[in-house]
Amino acid sequence: xxxxxxxxxVLFTTxxxxxxxxxxxxxxLPWRNRLPRLWxxxxxxxxxxxxxxxxAPEPRRPLLVAxxxxxxxxxxxxxxxxxxxxxxxxxxRDWPVFGVLARLQRSxxxxxxxxxxxRGQADEMxxxxxxxxxxxxxxxxxxxxxxxxREIKSSLFASATSAxxxxxxxVVHVQPLAxxxxxxxxxxxxxxxxxxxxxxxxxxxxxxxxxxxxxxAIDVDVRFGDMVEVxxxxxxxxxxxxxxxxxxxxxxxxLRGRTPS
Length: 261
What we know:
Number of helices: 9
Largest sheet: 9 strands, mixed
Shape: globular
Radius of gyration: 18 Å
């Protein structure tokens, strides 16, 4: 019954908001980036996920948000607190349901394995950034188990230095964002129960989706970190190291419930 009610609530919200969203997309109105936040908030409520926000998104633009990645739920969570466009791997475009949602949210699809397309993909991200859109990037390149941070790929920050070259003030703001699944039914998850929410990628999507719908009552921490300014001459390795240290610190704070030493 719980799964059926959650699906029904999401479908009702989708059917109600979709016509408005299509009009906003067609007319290229600002609400084409704002309306998805309402949908994601409603979807999280229906699923039973409560988001606890610490800090706030950087108000200045261009803005590139660099978030850790442990589940397909991250998209819903981040999009519920930031009016943003996401960078996704190309295969997501063809996923059932999620692929359609990603296209409606004007996601930027990239092929990381094809290096000859890297420049063009960075240019597209730079164009979106300089158009005033907040762009969310998952610099680990894949999902983790939610208990640790994978290696940060510095090459994915090429869009920031590229956008800085044509930005009005010659700078792009990069802000780390940590997403951590912490509790289920009010009790700490720990390493054993965290896979209820996290999706490392080697699991089938549909069973995991059903498992989340059945579980419900999941708490997630969203922490906005300090911003770093990126200019055309800024080293991508410097940016990736800054993002890595910020994400590790914020994850530790949420996972352990204390500020790391």
